[in-house]
Design a protein that fits this description.
This protein is an alpha+beta fold and about 280 residues long. The protein folds into 2 domains: about 110 residues, Alpha-Beta Plaits (2-Layer Sandwich); about 150 residues, Alpha-Beta Plaits (2-Layer Sandwich), CATH 3.30.70. The strands form 4 sheets. Strands 1, 3, 5, 6, 7 and 8 form a 6-stranded antiparallel beta sheet that branches. It has a 4-stranded antiparallel beta sheet with strand order 12-13-9-14. A two-stranded antiparallel ribbon has the order 2-4.
Length: about 280
């Protein structure tokens, strides 16, 4: 079951840290996994780009320069998503016995709370693949599809060895399809990729450039903002698959670098409130 956890962290001292903390946060989460399940950590470490885990940049408002300021007066939120049944066990363990303190980026962080409840944090939640698909097919029966996605951290794609920042329907939903089929027990048909490329168009958008500095100091250009996609031809089954992928984006992220915080996304179309209620599968966390 895809699960999104939000850690509320408070730095124990004032410090200057890299503005792009996604990579060091990911390394810390991998150490946390290794402490409880070394074999799982080893498999995740050697996995390709389609890893069943994402880790956000914990800085809610990173500075525009290379460094940001953290202090005990302001807590930060670290988001971790887990996409397979194997990794879901980690969520249950962390919710049952949260670590008291974490260390990364040269800072000690007190763990104030971990939640998987959508009512507690709009970026938390959990939903089964089966339920995502059932709800998506029900929505698709109502008529022509329309999907608005919000890109909250830079989204880009690797295409022919280059970085492609434009969120075309084929790249967006092709990325989601690849990750769904790598993690879900029931894969979606490859015809979804053709449908996205030939039948979906961007109807309106409000996008801006987002830049994340790589570990080699090279700027990685992506997009932030919102984009609405509509279907020119309505196929209830394929539109249902697109709807499922749009909702899945909340957990999987979109494009390259999701394991270190890039591509954080969510569907914000008119049905989003119902989707948020559906994500709240944890009665208490």
């Amino acid at each position: 079951m895809p699960t999104a956890l939000v850690f509320t962290l408070r730095p124990q001292h004032t410090a200057r840290v890299p503005s792009g903390m996604g990579r060091v946060a990911h390394a810390m989460v991998m150490e946390l996994i290794a402490a409880s399940d070394p074999e799982l950590a080893a498999r995740l470490h050697t996995a390709n780009e389609l890893r069943p885990i994402t880790v956000s940049n914990p800085l809610s408002r990173p500075d525009t320069g290379g460094e940001s300021h953290v202090c005990p007066e302001r807590s930060q939120r670290l988001r971790v998503t887990l996409l397979t049944n194997e990794t879901e066990d980690l969520a249950d363990a962390w919710l049952a016995a949260p670590p008291e303190e974490l260390r990364f980026g040269g800072v000690d962080w007190a763990v104030e709370r971990i939640t998987a409840r959508a009512r507690a944090d709009i970026w938390a939640g959990g939903e089964s693949y089966t339920r995502l698909m059932e709800q998506a097919l029900q929505r698709a029966e109502r008529g022509p599809g329309r999907w608005t996605l919000e890109f909250s951290s830079p989204v880009s794609f690797r295409q022919r060895g280059l970085c492609q920042p434009l969120p075309t329907p084929e790249l967006v939903f092709g990325s989601l399809l690849d990750r769904w089929n790598a993690c879900a027990p029931l894969p979606l048909p490859g015809e979804v990729r053709r449908y996205a490329a030939e039948s979906l168009i961007a109807s309106k958008f409000d996008l801006r450039t987002g830049i994340e500095v790589s570990k080699n100091g090279v700027p990685q250009v992506g997009v932030l903002g919102r984009c609405t996609y509509i279907a020119r031809e309505h196929d209830p089954l394929l539109a249902g698959c697109i709807e499922a992928l749009a909702q899945f984006a909340f957990y999987s992220g979109i494009g390259a670098g999701t394991a270190r915080g890039l591509g954080q996304s969510r569907a914000i179309a008119s049905g989003d409130r119902a989707a948020a209620r559906g994500r709240d599968r944890y009665a208490a966390a």
